[in-house]
Amino acid sequence: MKRIAALVAVLPIVFAGAAWSKDDPPKDAAKAAAKDPVVAARMAAAAAKPDSTKNKDLQSAITPDAAIKALKEGNTRFTGGKMVKRDLMKQVKETGKGQYPFASVVSCIDSRSGPEMVFDQGIGDMFVARVAGNIVNEDILGSLEFASKVAGSKVIVVLGHTSCGAIKGACDDVKMGNLTALLAKMKPAVASVKETGDRSSKNYAFVEKVAEANVQDTVAAIKAKSPVLKEMADKGEIKIVGAMLDVTTGKVLWY
Ligand SMILES: [Zn+2]
């Protein structure tokens, strides 16, 4: 009960950070905000200064396409070694009383696939759910629903990566402890890839095809298992997209 009481106490604060009524859905709010000259000026200022933390007006004004563009630009900065110089403690202070992230990412736990790093983002910019093999379950779907419906995130990126150990494990039918059940969630992707030759992790091309299929499966699973997110996507309030990180280059390829 204590935990529930604590959650109830916190929720109004969270909702206050990114709330909207049914009469004022995010899509319309974003359109209206984008036309507002004050907001437009803030967006221009923020674009010129990518280390600035997001505020409510800015988050409302960002469209799903603009969110994807910002992530692409961040990855270009990352691969070009031109990351934004951020004062992270300044960002901590700016976001301490509220967060207005513009993107959500589901990525693998792989040590090379940290979303904030590969997309060159700072404190308060994005929600990140990480699990080996970038799959979704009820808990992650609930997290994504919170991120988009409650907190105003504009895009969900399912980020797979090359040379994924979880995908290799699924290809090789590895069985070990709790990993067995996790890898089972990637088996449909393994089965969907047509390969008459070597279907083991030794076949690099096969593994990469399975990784891509797994990203597509996760994107489809989000839409199929979350009516909340599907409705938002259908209305154009958010986009749900897949992408693949090449761990040899740091470059993200978009589907
Ligand atoms: Zn992985």
**What is the spatial order of strands in the main beta sheet?**
2-1-3-4-5
Low-confidence stretches are 4-26
Query: How far apart, in Å, are the first and last alpha carbons?
Result: 44 Å
Largest sheet: 5 strands, mixed
Beta-strand content estimate:
5-15%
The helix fraction, in percent, is 40-55%
Identify the bound ligands: zinc ion
What is the approximate shape? globular
As a whole number of angstroms, the C-alpha radius of gyration is 19 Å
Number of continuous helical runs: 13
| Mean pLDDT metric | 88
Number of strands: 5
SSE string, helix = H, strand = E?
HHHHHHEHEHEHHHHHEE
Q: SS-based structural class?
A: alpha/beta
3D structure, described in words:
It is a single chain. The chain is α/β, with parallel strands linked by helices and 255 residues long. The chain has helices at 2-17, 26-35, 37-48, 56-61, 64-79, 88-95, 115-118, 138-150, 165-171, 179-184, 187-192, 204-225, 227-234; strands at residues 103-107, 126-130, 155-161, 239-245, 252-254. A five-stranded mixed sheet has the order 2-1-3-4-5, with helices on both faces. The longest helix is centred in the last third of the chain and has 22 residues, at 204-225. The radius of gyration is 19 Å and the shape is globular. The model is unreliable at 4-26 (pLDDT under 50).
What is this entry, summarized?
This protein has 13 helices and 5 strands. It is of the alpha/beta class and 255 residues long. The chain has a 5-stranded mixed beta sheet, with helices on both faces.
Write the layout of secondary structure elements.
Layout: H1 2-17, H2 26-35, H3 37-48, H4 56-61, H5 64-79, H6 88-95, E1 103-107, H7 115-118, E2 126-130, H8 138-150, E3 155-161, H9 165-171, H10 179-184, H11 187-192, H12 204-225, H13 227-234, E4 239-245, E5 252-254
Parallel strand pairs: 1-2, 1-3, 3-4
Antiparallel strand pairs: 4-5
Helix pairs in contact: 12-13
The structure holds zinc ion.
